[in-house]
Amino acid sequence: LMNHSCCPNVIVTYKGTLAEVRAVQEISTGEEVFTSYIDLLYPTEDRHDRLKDAYFFCCECKECSTKGKDEAKLEIRKLNDPPKPEAVRDMIRYARNVIEEFRRAKHYKTPSELQEICELSLDKMGAVFEDSSVYMLHMMYQAMGVCLYIEDWEGALRYGQKIIKPYSKHYPPYSLNVASMWLKLGRLYIGLENKTS
Question: Fewer CB atoms inside 10 Å of the end CB: C or N, the chain?
């Protein structure tokens, strides 16, 4: 059993029922081993909500104490007339709601309806957030998934190309989420290259 940290020093992968634990940073003798129980893409408040809902505790790691990456994860679009704080709060609330709505909708909506939810929410959130905002990234990832499902390889590649650089910035080093995105992009590049040959 390992405790959670939003700054994990190991990652866990599974092969059937066997768990492999790999260090992703130097671990000194006697130092506690931490893994992450949740997706680390999101800002501190979202991570705390997920931990409270699923595991009934609140993380107090260095990342949660300093909120060091929150500003970058919630990057606001640079405009001549920047949005007011209440407009940003409203957009964060909208983003959280649309993410939850999409989770439910995947069970009963068609791929074209899901794609429309993604496009409309990206358009609305894009008035406030940069493409590198985690809420924009979340919906781009969902849109990429729909593109893959309907075999729109070019669309999936476009979304993936927008996602990979911010993912690499927002996730901790050696994140399996980043590795998985690189793998998807590689497969798309190879598939599209073979298609045009």
Answer: N
